[in-house]
Each structure stands twice: as structure tokens, then as C-alpha cells.
Design brief:
The chain is mostly helical. The protein is built from 4 helices and no strands.
Length: about 130
């Protein structure tokens, strides 16, 4: 009986690894098919407004074409995702808007993928009884 339980647990682990592997592969294959939502450009501007503000505090050159934070109408919106994306765009020297949005979509998928794994681990911790 113990042999059957061990075999079942091995299949269970294999199926979990297979599920997350398929999810990762499918996500990487289709991230460029997400399309662009109506507010993605606004989020890009939001990230650069905040990036320029930080650069001005550090006495660095700011990027042109973006309003100042004081004059920006949406200055109260959060930038937890937009600011790192603006920084990565400049760090990776992305000039084409298509590539910027593709980078944004791929990053968004990786955050979702990692969140799925964390949620799975949380469920295991919560619902495993000893």
C-alpha cells in the first residue's frame, strides 16, 4: 500500500511541474498576442513622469517629452509597475513603441507566473494537514 501512495505522490509532483511548465511555455509563446489596452500609453507616460522626478532629485538629466510631476494631471496614480518599466525601457535602449509594449506584456506575464507559483505554495501550506 505504501508503494502505491509513493507512486501517486510522484505522479502528483510530476503533474504539478508539468502544469507550471506548460503555463510558462504557453505564456512565452503568446505574450505578443495580448493587444494594447486603451490606457497603456498613459501608464508609460506615468512611469516617465515619476522617473524624471527622481532623476531631477538626483540632479540627473531628465527625458524630454514628458510633463513635470507638478503639472501632471494624473500625478496621484501609483507607479509600482510603471516606474520600473520606464527605467527598463531606457536601460535596455528600447526606441520602438512596439518593443516597449512587448517588454511590458512579457514582464506582466512573468509577474503573473510567479504569483501563480506563490499562490500554489500558499494553498499547499494552508491546506496540508499533518
Amino acid at each position: 500500500m505504501k508503494e502505491y501512495i509513493n507512486r501517486f505522490l510522484n505522479y502528483k509532483k510530476l503533474s504539478i511541474i508539468l502544469f507550471f511548465s506548460v503555463l510558462l511555455i504557453v505564456g512565452i509563446l503568446i505574450f505578443d498576442d495580448y493587444g494594447i489596452s486603451w490606457d497603456e500609453y498613459n501608464h508609460r507616460v506615468n512611469g516617465f513622469v515619476s522617473l524624471n522626478y527622481i532623476r531631477s532629485l538626483l540632479s540627473l538629466n531628465t527625458y524630454s517629452g514628458f510633463p513635470n510631476l507638478e503639472n501632471y494631471i494624473a500625478r496621484e496614480y501609483g507607479v509600482i509597475f510603471d516606474l520600473p518599466m520606464a527605467y527598463l525601457e531606457k536601460l535596455l535602449l528600447i526606441e520602438d513603441s512596439k518593443n516597449y509594449f512587448l517588454m511590458r506584456h512579457l514582464t506582466n506575464f512573468f509577474i503573473f507566473f510567479i504569483s501563480c507559483i506563490c499562490f500554489y505554495l500558499l494553498l499547499i501550506k494552508r491546506f496540508t494537514y499533518k
